[in-house]
Amino acid sequence: MTATTDTTATTNTTATADTTATAATTTTTFEAQRAALADVVAIPVTPFAADGSVDRDVHRALLRRILDGGVRIVTPNGNTGEFYALSPEERRLVTELTVDEARGRATVLAGVGHDLPTAVASARHARELGAQMVMVHQPVHPYVSEDGWVDYHRAIAQAVPELGVVPYIRNAVLAGARLAELADTCPNVIGVKYAVPDASRFAAFARDAGLERFVWVAGLAEPYAPSYFSAGATGFTSGLVNVAPAVSLNMIEALRSGDYAGAMKVWEQIRRFEELRGANGSANNVTVVKEALASLGLCRRDVRPPSRQLPESERAEVAAIAAGWSI
């Protein structure tokens, strides 16, 4: 009887030690990725050549411009990169170009999504190239259950346990407890790109999921960053950064220091640009960014359907805004 008790005690002690060691390893493994997320998360555009193909040389030049501007984390295949308008081969190419340019200079958070086998294959491809994290696009399906949402993300996260995983949440119905459930089985789910346009909802979701457990990224970019930072975000996404990296970096520095008045000065500076991007259900979200880049001579203004180029009558305003920033 005594021997049984001693064995059980020894087993329990060993299990506890193993659990503690695993938790410590998990925390250490993703420390760099967590730190990288608490920043301006750039979503680069995908420039197209005159023949409609991805312009590799211009893509590299735009990436170098962002990196030279001080950006330290980039998301190839994000929505500003026209993720859903790219072919599978083009998405792989964009990831390859980005990892190559960012190597040694910035963290790569590669966007993945579509059907589950495609998302898993994309995540594994990003891992093979040397990306440090993947951002999982909100599942595009007319019928998304909360259990199904967890299953989808779990399958991707478990396929690449070495990578940090960041769900992109646009679903206002999803409960924070479901994210916590996902992370219970997938410790590599370390951050969240939260893109529901409701700061109160974000505050509640983050606290229900675990405010300190995840790195919270304001997924609606600079316009929402001040309000989301006040509720616990420590990073924000940016398409604006393609045009004026210094402007985006000025905002996050102000937010980090608690200078909300300073952050709102930047907000006022970019307000009209972001209003143009957000008009009509964000129909011109990418279009306005590319138009600004075209006005600066940095890339063609071409976008793919279902987006469209700006009409001639609206281009001058975008050009004037871009020219007014210190680039």
UniProtKB/TrEMBL annotation:
Keyword Lyase: yes
Superkingdom of the source species: Bacteria
Pfam families given in the database record: DHDPS
Keyword field: Lyase
Binding site for pyruvate: 80
Record field: transmembrane: none
InterPro entries linked: Aldolase_TIM, DapA-like
Gene Ontology MF terms in the entry: 4-hydroxy-tetrahydrodipicolinate synthase activity
Cited Gene3D superfamilies: Aldolase class I (3.20.20.70)
Active site: 168 (proton donor/acceptor), 193 (schiff-base intermediate with substrate)
Matches recorded under CDD domains: DHDPS-like
Keyword check for Lyase: yes
Record PANTHER family: 5-DEHYDRO-4-DEOXYGLUCARATE DEHYDRATASE 2-RELATED (PTHR12128:SF19), DIHYDRODIPICOLINATE SYNTHASE (PTHR12128)
Record-stated family: Belongs to the DapA family.
Record's protein name: Dihydrodipicolinate synthase family protein
Organism, as annotated: Streptomyces apricus
Lineage: Bacteria, Bacillati, Actinomycetota, Actinomycetes, Kitasatosporales
